[in-house]
Amino acid sequence: MINAISRPQRWDNPFDEDLDEDKIASILALPAFVDIDGSRFPAQIPLEGIIANDARLVRYRRGEVVVRDGDYGNSAFLVVEGSVSVILAPGLPESVLGRSSKKKRGFVSALSQLWTNRKDVSEARVPRGNEGSAAASKALEYGLVDISKVSKSQTMVQLSPGRIFGEIAAIARSPRTASVIADDAALLLEIRWQGLRELRRYDPGWRKSIDDTYRANALKMHLMEDTLFEKVPAEDLDRVAAATLFETYGSLEWNVKFKREMQTGSSADAPIAAEGDYPDGLLMIRSGFAKVSRKIGNGERALTYLSAGSLFGLGELHRMWKGGDEEVVLRASLSALGYVDVLRVPYFVLDEYVFPHLDKEPEDHLQAAFERPLTADSLLEWAIDHRFINGTRTMVVDLDRCVRCDDCVRACASTHGGNPRFVRHGKDHDHWMVANACMHCIDPVCMIGCPTGAIHRDQATGMVVINDATCIGCQTCANSCPYDNIRMVEIATPEGGPIVASETGVPLLKATKCDFCYDQLGGPACERACAHDALKRTNFADLAQMAKER
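Request: output the structure for the sequence above.
Response:
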């Protein structure tokens, strides 16, 4: 029997189902929205529709945690009434933040999978009702914080009505950099990142406000957290921040260019600094990845890559500060791998405010990379070229140990209702293969175009997961994934019957991918099923170490 239903739409599941016309009108009357020209928005994405479907009003009690340092952010907040405080370094203790973890299946639930799985591996079961969206829309509840006590031990910055926060994490798909608590009873407008993206895209005022705040907050916070500046007096740190430049290279949608380059076999990374140039400032990686390379013959060879928190040029700048007859130039080039945020601290700032406060010579973390032979680490260069450095839980197969038994695939299928979440093939180097399984990337570009927020970061674990209830089968995430690790499958009723769109008669699809068996007692089933120790879920740093050991 064929079941016909209407194809799911982007706004079938509003962020707040209780947001009526009066509340929407009151939101649009706020100073943050009153000057927006609604005619700039396309008919299919009207301003009123963004507020009605991508926003919600949330009330917080005094001392209630709004966002937690380290959580992955999928939304931004606008203070409507009351005020909130941002807790700066060192931040609230873990116990106060009430860290939680995903609930694992019980033994009976895990065992029951053996006889409840369906046989057809080409279908994914459609969830009943609105269970996914209800969970997504429910406000997170944390314990209350004693503000009077916290204020004595923490540095706090108060945000009053009209201020926006959380947009940095929402736009950059990165962890929250600070915790925020309500000072008193506060009313906040929470805007999920899809709506925030549209506001920024179609309204110049929101775009400028978000970009300016992004730059200011990212810069000051990053300086405060780096040990290089820990002994710089507060007044001097303000001068450092005032002189520091915020730079971006590449595009947030870097996956489009990357996929094209993989097809043509050509590549052109955005240059940041060139080997042999005069070092005019310290480069601090805020987010994204950058490649360190040196010239060899008529080409170049990758030495290593830098990620968030890494520094470039520190060794050269400090040698220049100490003085000497030798001319100091950059030992290597730096280029963006996709998209990267960089803070550039000018040399004259380091010379006057930073280097004089150092008790010892700063550690040059790139020295080991410079000392390695240029012919070494072909595995590293391969991983950089294919952007596998982006993965945190990459499925790597040692082809010398793999016997092609497919126990890993069968284990995945039995754990996910008969629907395996990966394909046991992929790109290989020597005897290592990176299989087509979700890598749960540091920068998950698959999230960029999702119109409903169905694909998102889990706030507790950081894993990239898909909510079946809000996935509309648009295939945007599958097309955006640079590694082809998301599959589209036909959905079925709980009884196994096919489901088609009533408008066209075409089978309805849902996106599916590896969820890292987050609800399983023993962790990822694919890894546990491999009897030959051939399959590992790892990041590239661990892979490089494993390759050396083997």
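The chain has 20 helices and 25 strands.
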